[in-house]
Amino acid sequence: MSLDRTVGAAPAHPTPGHSRPSALASFLRLRELPVILALVILVAVTAALNPLFLSEQGIKDLLLNATILMILAVGQTLVIITRNIDLSVGSILGLVAFGTGSIFVAAPNLPIIAVFVLGMLFGAVLGALNGLLITIAKVPALVITLGTLYIFRGINNAWAGGTQYFAGDRPEAFGNLSVDTILGFPVITLIAVVVVAIVAVYMLGTRPGRDLYAIGSDPDAARLFGIPVTRRVLLAFVVNGLLAGLAGVLYASRFNSVGATTGSGLELDVVAAAVVGGVAIFGGSGTVVGATIGALLLTTITSALTALRVDKFWQQAIVGILILAAVVIDRIASVRSARKLRIAEARNV
Amino acid sequence: MSDPSRSRTAVDPEQGPTEKPVRGKRMAAPGTRTSEEKSTRRPAAGKADTTKVLAVPKGRTGAARVLLGRDAIMIYVLVVVVLYASIAIPRFASPVTVGFLLLDVIPTLLIALPMTLVIISGEIDLSVASIAGLTSALMGVLWQGGMPIALVLVICVLAGLVAGAFNGVLIAYLGLPSLAVTIGTLALFRGLALVVIGDNAVANFPPGLTSFFTSKIGGTGIPTVMIGVVVLIIAFAVVLHFTPFGRGLFALGYSREAATFVGIDVARSKFVLYLATGTVSALAGIYWTLRYSSARSDNASGLELAVIAAVLLGGVSIFGGKGSIPGVLAGVLLIGTINYALKLDRVSEVVLIIVTGSLLILSVVAPNIAAAVQRARHARQVRAAPLP
Questions:
Q1: N or C: which end of chain A has fewer CB within 10 A?
Q2: Is residue A285 part of a domain?
Q3: Between A87, A137, A326, which is nearest B365 by CB?
C-alpha cells in the first residue's frame, strides 16, 4: 500500500539505476492525465455541438464559475496530502464572505487590498484553530472539522441573523474584479491562477512542500526521519484557511449577496474536486494543479450540459458518476504502478 | 538493518501499560451508583487515584466496567440534561415534548444504527441522506403514477437496498476508499432524485398513512412509529454486540489483516453493512416523506453530517474498532434533547448548531487530553521508580 503511494507521489524521480524515462512516457504516467483528457474531450465535444460555448463570454463565465472552487481545492489538496481533511472550508468561506460584506458597510473607504488581507488573515485564524485542535489534541481531522463546520456556521448565523449584504453595499471597483478582464481572463481568475502557481511551486520545489507528501505517505516514518510533522500539518491547515479566506473575499466580489448560509454545502464539492483531480483521499499523492483541473472539470460539466441542452436535473448525477470514475481510475493506476514496482524490484535483486 | 526495528517492536509492549492506567484508574473509583454523583465526581477521582494505578494492572471488570464506561457517562450526561431541562425549562416535561422530540430525532436515530456499524468496521457512508432523498422522490413519483401505496413502499425499500449494494460493491469488492466513493454516490443519488422528481413536490399521500406516522401511543406522547424504531434498535444492538458477525466488525475496525487471518470474510461483512445502511436510509426517507407528507428531491439533505456527528458523539471511534449502540442512542438523544430544550427556551435555532459542533469536539478532545495527562503522570512515575 505505501509503496504504490510513494511512486504516485514522485513520478518525476525515477529510482537510481533505472534509465530516465522519456518525456512522453512520464507524460503518459501523469496522475492528472485522465482528468486533463476528460476536460479536453468535454470542451471539444461541447464546442463542436454548440459553438457559442467557446465564445468570449462563454469562456469568461466558465472561468468565473470555477475560480472559487479552484482556490478552495488548492487549499484542500494541501490538507488531504497530509492524510487529513478539512470539512469546514464552506463555513470558513461563509464567515469571511459575510465579514467582507460587513467591512465594506462599516468602513466603505478601506482600500480593497486591505480587505483582502483582513479576509485572508481571518481565514488563516480559523484554519489555525482547526490545525491546533487536530495537532495538539491529536484528534482525527474529520471529526474536528465536522465540529468546526457547525461551529463556524453557527457563528455566521448568529452574526448575520437575517442580514444580507448586497453588491450595492460594496464599492464598484471591488465588484469589477469579477467583471473586468485582462487578456480575456477575469481578474479574480488571474488571482486564482497566481495562487495555484505559487502553491504548486512550493509543493514541488521546497522542503516543507515535499515534507507534506512524506507525512501523508507515512506519518510515523516522517516523524522518525525528523520532519516536524506537527508544524507542517498545522501549516497545511493555516494555508487552507488562508485560501478559504481569499475565496470568501472573492465570493463577495463575484456574487450579489452574502448572508448566513453563504457557502454551505460547499465542503463536499471541494473534496470531490480534489478527488477528481487525482488527489488520493488517504494522502501522500496528488498535485495542486490536478485538483485545480478537477475543480475546473466539475464546474465546466455543469455549463457544458446546459450548452448541450441536457436536462438540468441530470447534472448532479453526472457529477457523481465523474467522481466515482476518478476514484476507480486512481485505483487502477495505483494497482498497476505497485505491480510495476514489484517487478522492477525483483529484477534489481 | 532489521535488528533496530525489531528492538523497537520489542519496546512496544512496554507502551501497552501506559494505556492501561486510564482503565485502572476508573476501576479504582469507589462505586456509588447514583447517576449524578458519578458524572460529577469522576474527574476528581481521576486525580486522586493515580498513585494506585501501578498496583492495579487489570482493566475494569464486571459492574464497574459497565457503570463507568464511556457509554454510561454519555447516558448520565443525557439523564442530567433531561432532568435539568425538566426542572429549569417550563413546558419541557410534557408528553408534547416527548412526541415532537422523538418525531424530530427519528431519521437521525434510524440512520445512526447502521452508520455505527459501518464506522466501527473502519469505513464511512456519506451517501445516506442522498439515499433517503432518492427514496422520497421515488415514492412521490410512483404514488402520483397511481401505484398502490403498499407496492410503492416495497419498491422504495428495494431501491435503498440497490443503492446500498452499489456502494457495497465498489467499497467491499473493488476495494475503493469509502470516503471518496460515498462522496461520489452522495452526488449521484441526490442527482438521481432530481432526475426522478425534478422540481416537483408530491404531497397527497393517503391521509390515513400520514396521520399514522405522526400519531401517538395513547396519552404518553410517544409516536407509534417508535415501536418499529425500537425493534430496529434492538436488532442492531443484538447483531453488533451478541453475534459473531458483530464481534467481527470490531476486529475489522482494529485491523483488517488480522480480521482476515481470523477467518472473517471482510468483503462480505462490509457488503452486508452497506446493504443495511441503504435499506435503513430508505426507511428514513419513507418516514421523512410521510411525516412531513411531502416528497421532494431535497428531502433530508445534509442529514449525513448530522448523523455522523451524533454517532461520533456517542463514542464511536472514527478509526473504527470502538463504539456501541447504547452510546450512540445516548449521543443522538443528547443532541436532540439539547436542541429541543434550547428551542423551548427561546434560544435562536441558528445558534444551536454551535452546540452540536462544540459537543462533538469536546467529546473527542476531552478524553484525549485526560489520556495525555495520565500518560505524562505515568511516565514520571516510571522514571522515578528504580529499575528492576
A1: C
A2: yes
A3: A137
Q: What is the pLDDT of residues A267-294, one digit of tens each?
A: 888 988 998 888 888 888 889 999 999 9
Confidence of residue B387 (pLDDT cuts 50, 70, 90): low
Q: Are A313 and B354 in contact (CB < 8 Å)?
A: no
pLDDT in tens, B332-351: 999 888 888 888 877 776 67
Top residue of A80, A268, A282 to mutate, by most chain B CBs within 10 Å, is A268
Contact B229, B110 (CB under 8 A): yes
For chain A, how many structural domains are there in total? 1
C-alpha distances out from residue A346 to A16, A339, A340, A342, Å: 15, 11, 10, 6
Is residue A43 assigned to a domain? no
Contact B350 A157 (CB under 8 A): yes
Can you tell me whether residue B154 is helix, strand or coil?
helix
Please give the residue range of the domain that contains residue A169.
Answer: 59-293
CB contact under 8 A, A158 and B308: no
Assess if residue A10 is contained within a domain: no
Question: Alpha carbon of B125 to those of B9, B35, B136, B192, B235: distances in Å?
Answer: 34, 34, 19, 18, 20
Q: Tell me how far the alpha carbon of residue A208 is from its chain's centroid.
A: 19
Single-letter residue type at B217: I
Q: Does A265 touch chain B (CB under 8 A)?
A: yes
Asked if the structure places residue A51 within a domain, the reply is no
Interface of A with B in 298-337 (CB under 8 A): 311, 313-324, 326-328, 331
Closest C-alpha to B225, from B206, B211, B235: B211
